[in-house]
Amino acid sequence: MSAPLLVGLTGSIGMGKSTTAAMFRDLGIPVWDADAAVHRLYDTGGAAVGPIGDLCPQAVSNNTVDRTALKAWMMRDPSALRQIEGIVHPLVAQDRAAFIESTDSDLVVLDVPLLFETGTSEQVDLVVVVATTAEQQRQRVLARPGMTEALFATLLEKQMPDAEKRARADHVIDTTTMDSARRDVAALVEKLREDRADA
After folding, report:
1. Phi, psi values for residue 6, rounded to 5°
2. What is the pLDDT of residues 65-101, one digit of tens each?
3. Is the model's pLDDT at 159 over the cut of 90?
4. Phi and psi of 126, rounded to 5°?
5. Cα 143 from Cα 24, distance rounded (Å)
6. What b/e string do you get for 101-121 counting C-beta neighbours within 10 Å, with b at 16 or more?
7. One CATH from 3.40.50.300, 3.90.1150.10, 3.40.50.11590, 3.40.50.880 for 1-30+107-194
8. pLDDT-based confidence at 24, cuts 50/70/90?
9. Tens-digit pLDDT profile for residues 44-53
10. How big is the CA angle at 187 (ends 183 and 191), to the nearest 5 degrees?
């Protein structure tokens, strides 16, 4: 069987990316979740636990990466993030490749929050960006437990601006209403499959 069409799914915080990923899953499309992959790598016996423990022993307890200790190390040491990424990024890429290899679907969605920022957008066939209004984004994010205006502002600073993501997307899904987003996802999947059949 030929390689599946790889759809990169991304969007800024609060835009509805996780909900949209679930809509693809509901249609039977395999979805690889980058955040879930990192959790697996950090979890008990995960592939990142040993290498991170070698770099910073305090960041590992009970054979699991302690995210709080990891963040404390990053606050202390400006080079920590680069060192962590040097371990985690290749392992995440391996996890993604194994997922793609294990599926027999004609379409695979890669749910990657920092798709553009990490260069993963260069490794997919199509980029889909989820978006809504800035006001709705703000309401959604500030409704999350423990979220503050200051933290929201910090998170936004780390992400590529929404307007730039939209400009670089092959397709934008508007999540202002979930019904319209669901219809858009279904129409996109149908079109991609038709195009693939015609190719």
Report:
1. -95, 120
2. 999 998 889 889 889 888 999 999 999 999 999 999 9
3. no
4. -155, 140
5. 25
6. eeeeeebbbbbbbebbebebb
7. 3.40.50.300
8. very high
9. 989 999 999 9
10. 175
